[in-house]
């Protein structure tokens, strides 16, 4: 059994193609820019066993491309490793393409036991230098987990949230580029803008985030492009890692 | 020249049988539409002029000119032209483009109200005739309405009734005119007329109908003659075919102002003629496209004079000139022809617009290039709707069209008695309030008073059954009154002349507020609902304790309740005697009236506040689809089409980004959604691809978005023609996006 916060039956933003997303309940990371803080509480959400969960997802299969995609997200899926492993194995046995969306939290043994079971790892690096300024992540642990990925044959996507004044400094992006260079199996880098849409979700939970007091300026498409260019030139990363640049060129 | 040269098949020659004619002669097209041509220079010039006129119309507040001097009729007006040099297809409703005619057959009070709203005076002689000497549909109906019918109507329990406007919904088989010519059609009608010689009421009624139809056909020929066109003989070439077909339709809209004046499914038919001339070298592709473009221009100019109340229900001046494309033949060949593409291509040649209301009859077996082309256009223009051909064909055969918004009808074989809809949410409140109206406190019927602070599921459902039974009796009787009188005083002679003499009749009932009722019942069943009553004991508000599932999340606990309501109500309607032995059908459809219905409905147990809009059609309530689009579609697809043959309308909106990054990906993902939805037996889907920001900007700066077209329940509309309230409702709707 495991706990889920919700199911999204159709998403084009959580991995390749159109796919389902299962948001696990429970997250110890507590990012200050989190979009769904109601997924933090470990005892919240709905309790469900992986078999029943997959039966629900199977109803969405005819609407998706073949093979259908499933992204395990959260919350932090690694917070319920057993559940994540069971769900991934079960889904793969029925020909789902399974992606894992994680912050890289947790001990390396646990981390590896889960990521081995999926087809794609989407690793959100919160901050390459000082993650503790944005979350409760421990830099050492995240680096260890990131580096372990290099030995796997599984493709990795790096995801990064751009927050003005917090994650967009040249030195931060430079360091991020260094991280990226470490993985031969890195397939894609996705940069998302932080805009204050998260705020109302926090307010309903009577929570407050330091971000709401500093009012970071809006991140534009242009800012994203710039960050991508910086990353590319600093670290000599292949342009193929930035599919959004292709779009701009096209 | 032999009009039927090169045509194959025999059956259709002796007796009217379009489907046999098409089967033997049409040309399915499987390739990509590389052949399409841009607008001809004549089309460009003509369209430019029309656009200027439409801009003037918009500036004038929606109506350019009203002529009150004549009574609507096929031959009331001498010919009118827009620009003779560039006008390939001729014919206007009056003698000038966009000049609106007065149609008093439906009711004189409506004429007065509509004229008043436009600051024109109705003609005093006409006023005298239609108030003193000639009874109208509206007057006749109100004379026989019972007090209970009037009450249900004014409280908004039964709403939008066609008792003060033309019922529409009929699709004449306009193809019959070019294929056979009017002389043959009259001969056939006369055979029917004299073959019937019983003296019972029903037979005499039918004979009078047919006699009227013969007269209408004669008038139609007369009208065409004034344009220099001889409709009595069959059309001989492509131009004549398009022109003949349009004039037949024009006859209908000159005489009738029915709410929906749909056109049918004409491309395979027209394509036969275009193809014959193309093959003979007497027509070029540009000329073929020109014929369709110019036909569509004419359709975009059709207007009727409406009252402000009517506009509130059906916003944006819609005509529902619904034209279907696509579909599969029963023999397994797609009915897709080059002319299906030519119709769709008008959206590019002339720009997107709500009319004609283009409807794709969808099957996964349609040629892939066609499916991709349709979805691409849907993403670009938000003006297409899609209906499940695999669901409809087994019931209606392969020669059907979509009437009004979503309702399948066999072309030339069926007619419909349009029945608007009942407000199911108000009916539920009657069940909760001991049969009293929640807004006025009026006693409407007697049901037991509910005891206790909390709503008890069993008691509520028992009462709801009583209310629904009572309502089905009242509703069907009301319909019988309306259509008896409509037939008698506002009979659609032209359209009926192009339908079989004794057609299959549907009584098209409808329901609104389904998702509000579903969620309310779910709250009562699965959570605890505390009732807050005023000093008269009327429930004014509800407090829900605990959680409950919402319709639109693929959750059987609530989806099952939704189906239960539909089955119960339809089962009850189906037991009622119906005028002219019509077969009952039911729709889940609201047009834009979900706003007005919501306004007339108090707070509901699902947490919806008093006066707030319902969701459109069969949609889940805004913002309650917590599991995304596919789960919502799953819920929708569970609604039983077999008892909702009049159509289950679903309108979905998504941002371009949420559909995919690249244009190709969007088409691919949308294909998955549409195939998935229809594969699960979903019936209809309106596809909107836009962002909320665009709508907000269009609301603030309408001048920048004159052509922004969106799909509402069952039709498309220029966004800027909606009222502020309706615009806000559209903006409030769930638009699938995610950060």
Give the amount of beta strand of chain A, in percent.
Answer: 15-25%
How many domains of chain A? The number is 1
Named CATH topology of chain A: TIM Barrel
> What kind of oligomer do you see?
heterodimer
Secondary structure class of chain A reads: alpha/beta
Number of strands of chain B: 20
Find the structural class of chain B using helix and strand composition. alpha/beta
**CATH architecture tag of chain A:** Alpha-Beta Barrel
Strand content of chain B: 5-15%
CATH topology of the largest domain in chain B: Anaerobic Ribonucleotide-triphosphate Reductase Large Chain
- Structurally, the number of domains of chain B stands at 2
CATH class (first level) name of the largest domain in chain B: Alpha Beta
**Roughly what is the average pLDDT of chain A, rounded to an integer?**
91
Major beta sheet summary of chain B: 6 strands, mixed
Summarize the helices and strands and which ones pair or pack:
The complex is a heterodimer of chains A (250) and B (739).
Chain A: E1 2-11, E2 19-24, E3 46-48, H1 50-58, E4 69-73, H2 81-93, E5 97-102, H3 108-115, E6 120-124, H4 139-148, E7 156-162, H5 170-181, E8 186-193, H6 199-204, H7 211-214, H8 221-235, H9 243-249
Parallel strand pairs in A: 2-4, 4-5, 5-6, 6-7, 7-8
Antiparallel strand pairs in A: 1-2, 1-3
Chain B: H1 11-14, H2 18-25, H3 41-59, E1 65-71, E2 99-102, H4 108-117, H5 124-133, H6 137-144, H7 147-155, E3 158-159, H8 176-180, H9 182-195, H10 201-226, H11 238-255, H12 267-280, H13 285-300, H14 308-313, E4 322-326, H15 338-349, E5 357-362, H16 368-381, E6 385-388, H17 389-396, E7 400-403, E8 407-410, E9 414-418, E10 421-423, H18 424-432, H19 457-489, H20 493-497, E11 504-512, H21 514-526, E12 528-533, E13 539-545, H22 556-573, E14 583-588, H23 594-599, H24 628-637, E15 647-648, E16 651-654, H25 656-659, H26 663-679, E17 684-689, H27 692-700, E18 709-712, E19 715-718, H28 724-732, E20 735-736
Parallel strand pairs in B: 1-2, 4-5, 5-6, 9-11, 10-11, 11-14, 14-15, 16-17, 16-20
Antiparallel strand pairs in B: 3-10, 6-17, 7-8, 12-13, 18-19
Helix pairs in contact in B: 3-13, 6-19, 9-10, 11-12, 11-13, 12-15, 13-15, 16-26, 18-19, 19-22, 21-22, 24-26, 27-28
